């Protein structure tokens, strides 16, 4: 698909295509053409030109998401291109904007917004090297620290110290970049580039380090908080976090697996859960909540009823919800507002079929994403599922991997899915008849790949043909056996793997020590 370019954009491409010529003549370019030249340079991956454009940026703000988004001159959105060459040039250009004393333009820049960059699985940039969220966090922190050292050592123009630029960024902190980010945040007051953390994700951090750095980020500005892998945050720690820190603007909260476990609840724990619910109720902006792999049986109402703003996104996958929980969700004021819902890991047909369909009917007018993985949906349930999904005309994404459905049932379901006008992404299971007879669900990891791959390929082709014949080439259908793409995990998987091996080794050593003592 070719996107139309205006004559202005074609001219901008011609100008920046010769880097040496463009850099030499930037001083003669009108201020209002800088955004156009920036997008053209980004498309052509002209790193040196990008650097010089940013170093001499003549406008009050520099919003990467807007600059790369769809414009009248060029409709294509480039904000999902996390090209390493381009982004490194942006950030080093920003550092040199502060240091540049011979710039012909008055320094007007006040706000840089890096939050509009989208990390996606398939990259189209020629260099094929991406700079993900972790690497952007790392580089910006490094540049801020280097900038301060340089300013303290060099004879700079006094005006340099008066420069104050807020740099809005989604920080991603792990053990490996923790010290660097802490140093940058501690020295924020002295640095002309002020890191403003809008979203914060932490993986592989001790609780002590997590609590320390979260206070440094200025939680009053935080809109999204993700505490994900290998941060051992349990309910009592969450209560301490909410009691000691206020998050007035928080819109999205992701908690790590096993934050809650009601199976070992005492009266004190029940009170703690109520307190956490009340604290979340004080977060007037909170509309997205993810609490997967916690045990929340019978406690959803206690946790969600204090919320004053309806949730738009709820992930309670593998949370052992019972009928009372599902009944609360179906009848709550959240139901009519849910745009994304994940109920994976619950035996929906067996436990609460009618209540689930009631919930689905309430959110059908707004629902965009639905995940029902490992929900024991079988061939006999497909007609009912089609009936429930029919009103969901805004559905863009449907994930139902891990359900025991036959090839025939999948074809029947796909024929219906073609009728959902907004649908873009479908994640479907390996058909049951591709596995050996007698396979039990949910399928364990060891058996997950033991299916007839040739038969699966044939069925996948037939399913894609159904989409093709219905003129739905816009729908991507896939079977990611080990879960959907996660940009953050992809970027830090080496560190994550090393951490898991270390944890396993420590557990093994403790077990051996205990065993030897018993012997």
Automatic annotation (TrEMBL):
The keyword Repeat applies. It comes from the Eukaryota. One of its GO terms (cellular component) is cytoplasm. InterPro entries: LRR_dom_sf, LRRC14/PRAME. Signal peptide: none annotated. Keywords: Leucine-rich repeat, Repeat. Belongs to the PRAME family. LRRC14 subfamily. This is Leucine-rich repeat-containing protein 14B. It comes from Gymnorhina tibicen (Australian magpie).
């Amino acid at each position: 698909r070719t996107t139309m370019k205006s004559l202005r954009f074609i001219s901008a491409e011609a100008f920046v295509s010769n880097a040496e010529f463009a850099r030499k003549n930037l001083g003669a370019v009108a201020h209002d053409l800088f955004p156009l030249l920036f997008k053209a340079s980004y498309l052509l991956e002209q790193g040196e030109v990008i650097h010089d454009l940013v170093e001499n940026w003549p406008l009050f703000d520099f919003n990467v998401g807007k600059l790369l988004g769809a414009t009248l001159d060029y409709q294509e959105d480039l904000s999902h291109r996390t090209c390493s060459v381009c982004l490194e040039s942006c950030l080093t250009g920003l550092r040199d904007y502060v240091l540049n004393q011979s710039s012909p333009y008055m320094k007007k820049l006040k706000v840089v917004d890096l939050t509009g960059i989208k990390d996606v699985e398939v990259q189209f940039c020629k260099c094929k090297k991406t700079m993900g969220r972790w690497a952007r966090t790392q580089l910006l922190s490094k540049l801020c620290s280097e900038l301060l050292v340089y300013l303290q050592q060099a004879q700079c123009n006094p005006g340099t110290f008066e420069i104050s630029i807020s740099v809005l960024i989604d920080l991603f902190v792990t053990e490996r970049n923790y010290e660097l980010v802490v140093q940058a945040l501690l020295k924020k007051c002295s640095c002309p580039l002020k890191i403003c953390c809008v979203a914060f994700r932490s993986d592989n951090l001790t609780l002590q380090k997590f609590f320390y750095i979260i206070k440094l980020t200025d939680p009053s500005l935080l809109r999204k908080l993700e505490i994900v892998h290998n941060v051992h945050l349990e309910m009592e720690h969450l209560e301490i976090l909410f009691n000691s820190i206020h998050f007035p603007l928080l819109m999205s909260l992701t908690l790590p697996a096993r934050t809650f476990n009601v199976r070992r609840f005492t009266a004190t724990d029940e009170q703690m859960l109520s307190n956490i619910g009340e604290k979340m109720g004080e977060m007037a902006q909170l509309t997205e909540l993810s609490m997967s792999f916690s045990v929340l049986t019978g406690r959803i109402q206690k946790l969600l009823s204090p919320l004053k703003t309806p949730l738009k996104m709820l992930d309670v996958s593998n949370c052992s919800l019972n009928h009372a929980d599902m009944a609360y969700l179906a009848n709550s004021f959240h139901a009519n507002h849910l745009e994304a819902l994940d109920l994976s890991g619950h035996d929906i047909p067996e436990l609460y079929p009618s209540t689930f369909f009631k919930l689905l009917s309430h959110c059908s007018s707004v629902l965009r994403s639905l995940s029902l993985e490992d929900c024991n949906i079988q061939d006999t349930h497909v007609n009912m599922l089609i009936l429930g999904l029919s009103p969901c005309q805004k559905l863009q994404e449907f994930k139902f991997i891990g359900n025991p459905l036959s090839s025939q049932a999948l074809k029947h379901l796909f024929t219906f899915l073609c009728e959902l006008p907004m649908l873009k992404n479908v994640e479907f299971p390996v058909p049951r008849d591709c596995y050996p007879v007698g396979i039990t669900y949910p399928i364990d990891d060891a058996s997950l790949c033991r299916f007839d791959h040739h038969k699966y390929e044939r069925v996948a082709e037939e399913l894609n043909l159904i989409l093709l014949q219905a003129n739905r080439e816009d729908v991507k259908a896939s079977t990611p056996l080990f879960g959907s793409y996660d940009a953050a995990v992809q970027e830090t998987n080496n560190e994550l793997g090393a951490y898991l091996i270390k944890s396993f080794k420590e557990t093994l050593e403790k077990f051996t020590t205990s065993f030897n003592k018993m012997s």
